[in-house]
Design a protein that fits this description.
Layout: E1 2-8, E2 11-16, E3 28-34, H1 38-48, H2 55-58, H3 63-66, E4 67-70, E5 73-82, E6 90-99, E7 102-107, H4 112-122, H5 129-165, H6 179-214, H7 227-290, H8 305-326
Parallel strand pairs: 3-7
Antiparallel strand pairs: 1-2, 1-3, 4-5, 5-6, 6-7
Helix pairs in contact: 4-5, 5-6, 5-7, 6-7, 7-8
Length: about 325
């Protein structure tokens, strides 16, 4: 899909698709390409007289492949975390091209930030390439801030769930904390930790992108610089990077805590088996002694010998339990 934004006497107009060509080429200031077809790419190339990067070229990880100048235009690609509300979040690449008075954006995933900015742009009376570029970046940064805030809220909820449930020993009328809850918390921490790692990587790419965009465009011969205009955006991205690092450290702390709680729960299980083995060990010894097949065994021929052995085994089982209870091992 191609969207052409033009400046008219009545304000800002948007043309969607190539069927309606009721616009003047010199009035175009923004070309937005969302999963473009070959025909739409050729139309954008004809308008700006440049060659558009392919989807594979947008995914290059080298900085020189993402940030470069060619044919009098500045090509800049950044990564953002997209589709966070779904079960399959992903890293999406967005390419910005500044050529003359026109800005071109190429993306292969629908972005909430672009929808919000385009709606606000259509309500404005006038704008230009630089204002659109800066406005898009500010909207993207705001969206990334919202995503990080959501991750922070999820971590707070997980922290309360984990530590409040295990901060004291349960009473008799309360259920014992289940290890399955800790496993679920561990899985959720892994999911959020993976998303935060992706977000940190996206913020690093975005900061590199903003730094490159703020320098003078020597390759195009332009002396206009966006450095001063992009400084607030760069500060915001730095702040988000620090917050993402804080969340990452919190993830590591909670992972260690949950693993420790799981070990405690497992140790409690082994503790029960150990106590049971110690409780039944003396009765087993007594039963083994009276089960020997010697000819001369005390109380073997007596009628009350069986009951004496039973009483001895019960006492041998109860005595360790009493000692453990006094020592508060159980």
């Amino acid at each position: 899909m191609i969207r052409l934004y033009t400046q008219t006497e009545n304000g800002i107009s948007r043309t969607v698709g190539l069927e309606d060509r009721d616009y003047r080429q010199e009035d175009i200031f923004w070309i937005d390409l969302l999963t473009p077809t070959q025909e739409e790419l050729r139309e954008a190339e004809a308008i700006c007289a440049i060659e558009m990067p392919t989807k594979d070229e947008m995914r290059e990880i080298e900085a020189t492949s993402r940030l470069y100048c060619e044919d009098g235009g500045r090509f800049m690609t950044t990564s953002v975390l997209s589709r966070v509300e779904t079960d399959e979040p992903m890293i999406a690449e967005i390419t910005f091209i500044l050529k003359g008075k026109v800005i071109i954006t190429i993306r292969h995933t629908d972005s909430y930030s672009f929808r919000v900015f385009s709606h606000s742009l259509l309500r404005a009376s006038s704008t230009n390439r630089d204002l659109v570029f800066i406005g898009l970046l500010e909207t993207l940064v705001d969206r990334q801030a919202d995503v990080l805030e959501r991750f922070g809220t999820d971590l707070d909820a997980l922290s309360k769930k984990v530590f409040r449930a295990h901060r004291r020993r349960p009473r008799k009328d309360e259920e014992d904390p289940d290890t399955d809850d800790l496993r679920e918390a561990l899985q959720e921490l892994g999911r959020v930790g993976d998303l935060i790692a992706r977000q940190r990587d996206a913020l690093v790419n975005l900061l590199r992108f903003i730094t490159y965009a703020g320098n003078e465009d020597k390759c195009t011969g332009s002396h206009e610089s966006l450095y001063d205009s992009l400084r607030p955006v760069a500060r915001d991205v730095n702040s988000l990077s620090e917050y993402a690092s804080f969340l990452s450290n919190k993830i590591n702390f909670m992972l260690d805590a949950v693993l420790g709680l799981i070990n405690i729960e497992q140790n409690e299980i082994f503790k029960v088996f150990t106590i049971l083995s110690l409780v039944f060990l003396p009765p087993t010894l007594i039963a083994s002694i009276f089960g020997m097949n010697f000819a001369d065994m005390p109380m073997l021929q007596e009628g009350w010998g069986f009951w004496i052995s039973i009483v001895l085994m019960v006492c041998a089982a109860v005595l360790p339990l009493v000692i453990f209870k006094i020592k508060r091992y159980i």
